[in-house]
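Hi V.,

You were right to ask for the full record rather than a summary. Here it is.
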Amino acid sequence: MCMFCAAIPTTAAVGVVLDSKQRESRQKKGLPPQRLRPFAVLTALFLLILAFGSAVFHSKFPELS
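Predicted structure:
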């Protein structure tokens, strides 16, 4: 498994945990939920970058897959 393919589930898991902790923290403080959740947006951005990197890597080096 390439480094990109291994990093995708790890990044997704870390992003979900961070987003969950932030939402829980805001809820405990009595604040309303955020419309734009920064950890969810950053996680999605990183996942797109990793998916693109994986596609490029697998197309350039198919013998390593």
